[in-house]
Amino acid sequence: MNRLDTSEIVDGAAPTKRLFTAAEATRALVLVRRILRDVVTGYSRLLDLHERVEAADDGDAHDCSPDKAEMVRLVEQLQECMEEFDQIGVELKEWTTGIVDFPSVVDGREVCLCWQMGERTVRHWHEADASCACREPIRTLTALKKIAV
After folding, report:
1. C-alpha distance from residue 66 to each of 29, 49, 50, 58, 76 (Å)
2. Residue 75 has pLDDT above 70, yes or no
């Protein structure tokens, strides 16, 4: 499932935080979309299985062992996806609607370029310490040309 070449990580050292321009973030969407599809689908399935297992624990007679085994597999798959996001340098902010932040710097201040599954390009941003609910159109950044590499 690993879609990323991890050969760039040397001696187990953690990579430095990557900063994205809007163009770089949009180019990264090819990979981010594939991983995010797995996350959203897997998370939805995990929630469904969790409900079934809870119902079985409340006295339902059917055996929930296969559901529990599937839950373990899904959790492992989701952990792999999160590791891939870490390697790319992005942060998953919302599991069900698929919102991802790309760290950036504008005029010396840290911001997040924000993308939601279904959008064609990265077109929004928010302050680094703000939630995705505060995202604004990227055109409101006064110094778009100065977004760090």
Report:
1. 34, 10, 12, 17, 16
2. yes
| DSSP track, 47-106 | HHHHHHHHHHHTT--S--HHHHHHHHHHHHHHHHHHHHHHHHT-EEEETTTTEEEEEEEE
Which residue in the block uniquely carries the two structure tokens 């990580």? 9
Residue 16 has pLDDT above 50, yes or no: yes
d(CA 82, CA 85): 5
pTM as predicted: 0.78
Residue 114 carries which DSSP code?
Answer: E
Percent composition of the chain: helix, strand, coil (DSSP 3-state, to 5):
50, 15, 35
Tell me the two tokens of residue 51: 């409900």
Residue reference for tokens 């090819």: 30
Amino acid 58: pLDDT: 65
Report the alpha-carbon distance of residue 39 to residue 7 in Å, rounded. Answer: 24
88 closest CA partner among 22, 3, 1: 3
Q: Is the pLDDT of residue 103 over 50?
A: yes
The structure tokens listed for 24 are: 């770089």
